[in-house]
Give the backbone structure.
Amino acid sequence: MKIKKTTIWQLISAVLAVLLAISIYTGGFKKESGTIESKTDLKGFSAVLINDKRCVECDTTMLVSQLKAVFPTLEIKELDYSSKEGKALYEETKLTALPALLFTEEVKNSQNYTQVERYIDPAGKYLSLRVGASFDPAAEICDNKIDDDKDSKIDCEDDSCEGSMLCREETKKKLDVFVMSQCPYGTKALDAMKEVLENFKSDIDFDIYYIANENADGTFASLHGQAEVDEDIRELCAVKNYPDDYKYMDYIWCRNKKITDTAWEGCAEEAFGASDKIKACFEGAEGKKLLSENIKNANSLKIGASPTWLANNRYKFSGIDAETVKKSFCQYNTGLSGCSNTLTGDAAAVPAGGCGA
């Protein structure tokens, strides 16, 4: 079962065999030895990249760099949607989102074509590389003070901007994390919160949101299967029943040591002295209702990468160590006493990563 798409930075269909399960726009590339040859015979081979300068999140520098590393003789012509030629080609090829990378038919002559053909869709006389693009150039841009879609409503006044991060009300000292309970990067992020919570004490308002989808029949789909759905529910049951002073985190930190172990009761007993409340919530209708409501936040924001952090209800960032979380939180909450402390880990020492839906 598939999870809904997120933004182009967090969820990208595998583009080349060397890019499987890695987001192009987060800069995470993983080469697999022997997957794609470094040599190529692409004489005169070209591609067209259509982008939109209005999209602040549509930086394709890394994409272009990686493509040229794989195809050294690749010639890319770049067009902006605002140009007559760019808009005409966008409409001619029936694209629905940007950025778009369009190969000419010559790509089929490449010795690497078999490696990329399953990630390519026909687009008129071109072949479009799937990059998980989500920017609609015909839609309202929510922060440029222009009525882009000509409906007499500008920026956040436009109904289409309702779910935009830019239009969310800022809430100081708020920190949210979006995770999959069995994602190894998500568990590291939640483990880091032990030090973060101790550091900020009452100067932080923390909440957890899970990444999953609800099916039409009332069941749920999550990247790591039903076991992850079950753990999402149990953790939300812990949140519901033991909210004071983040007591529920004791259960989560215990579970994270062996997150795939089906014997969860021991952690509930260790954290709360009993497992009966969690068991009743998990096995009854209450737990499913909690998950149904909780996942709406991630889905409305199109967040599908675990972990994804949200500071002050509107500023996204990534990280899995306490120091990175602290720095990013303090960037939007200056002056807090905890901001002067140095916590464990930093962006350079701790490997970045995430689970993408």
In short: The chain has two domains: 17-129, 174-356. Residues 192 and 207 are 14 Å apart (CA to CA).
